[in-house]
Amino acid sequence: MKLICLRAIINLLKCKCFVRDWGTIVISSDMLLAFVSVAQTLSVGRSAIELNVVKSVISKRIAQLERHLGVTLFSRSTRRIALTAAGEAYLEHAKNALAELAAGGEMMLSMRSELRGRIRLTAAVSWGQRVLCRLLPEFLKRHPDLEIDLVLADRLVDIAYERFDIALRWSASSSARDLVAYPVSKIDWMVTASQEYLAQFGNPDKPEELAHRSCLFYRGSSQDEWWSMSAGGIQKRIRVRSRYHVDNPEAVYEACVQGLGIAQLPDYLCDGALESGKIVRILPMWAQHTRFGNQITALVPPERMQLVRNRVFIEFLQQSLETAHETPDCT
To answer: Residue 246: which CATH number?
Structure first.
């Protein structure tokens, strides 16, 4: 039986429930919220805190949902709670239904006032701090009726469940299904070292020499130990070693400036230090290829691009960052 339909979504905007044609209440949005929250947290207590209700209300809503669906969504024991096979199958439908309802409400708001409301963003921490946060004040000055809700996180967020309008991510992590991708900012990766380090150990002339140097890089997996680069149609893949393992580009940059080794870094971290002479670019003819890709991309659920404020924001970013490659129009 198809429980979710356009008429139900419209009714939900008025009474927070899905309604059958003959008027019987079937499933409320509160039931869906309780179910999705517990499925994510695997804790009735944490979900009660998240939704600002008591635990008994969460349990009641899930019991009502199970009764209406005629299935058991969770297996329960004294120690743990877990989704059943039926619960796993229903979860994506519930999340999509909530996302559609939220989008419907946002669309109504957009129709009343195109550049009002809140844009909920998430971005990678380092790029967000160094680049994005410098641009947001100007955007908000231009549009006084808009608000920005920014979450900086390197984890891959669930855009639908966490209700983000736009996720600004590295291009290599931007292959999510059911999302529209817009290039925002080109990133040039480079190999650099401080003047102090080069004075002590010398400047490597060939990529192969990196295998015998102390190197610095963002370490998230074992593949980060392999540096890939190309020049003139020649491909090189060098395994490097490091005494400093860290999962933050800012920390890698600081270690490089202080002479700890040769670093592989994005240009937005290096530009100022290169100009001041704190660090020097090494092997400039060799293009670096990392698992992160070479641009920041805006990932947007298709229905969120119907909101004018989201389109205006992406256009602002593209224009402000002056991407090196021609980018598609968001209109």
So the answer is: 3.40.190.10
Domain count, the chain: 3
pLDDT digits (tens, 9 = 90+) for 65-74: 988 888 999 9
Q: Would 25 be classed as within a structural domain?
A: yes
The pLDDT tens digits for 256-305 are: 999 999 999 999 999 889 999 999 999 999 999 988 888 899 999 888 88
User: What HEC string does 89-153 produce?
Assistant: HHHHHHHHHHHHHHHHHHHHHHHHCCCCEEEEEEECHHHHHHHHHHHHHHHHHHCCCEEEEEEEC
Residue 38 lies in a domain: yes
pLDDT exceeds 90 at position 195: yes
Look up the pTM and report it. 0.63
Whether residue 197 is found in the same domain as residue 274: yes
Written as six digits, the tokens of 63 are 């019991």
Look at residue 189 and tell me whether its pLDDT is greater than 90.
yes
Residue 189 has a CB neighbour count (10 Å cut-off) of 18
Q: Is 77 a residue whose pLDDT tops 90?
A: no
> What letter does residue 241 receive in the DSSP assignment?
B
Q: What is the pLDDT of residues 199-255, one digit of tens each?
A: 999 999 999 999 999 999 887 777 888 999 999 999 999 999 999 988 888 999 999
**Residue 92: CATH number of its domain:** 1.10.10.10
What secondary structure does DSSP assign to 181-198, as a single string? Answer: EEEEEE--EEEEEEHHHH
168 in a structural domain: yes
CA proximity to 285, closest of 240, 232, 212: 232
Same-domain status, 308 and 166 = yes
Q: 301 with 168, same domain?
A: yes
Packing angle between helix 44-51 and helix 55-69, nearest 10 degrees? 100
142/71 same-domain check? no
Whole-angstrom distance between the N-terminal and C-terminal Cα of the chain?
Answer: 37
Domain that holds residue 207: 189-289
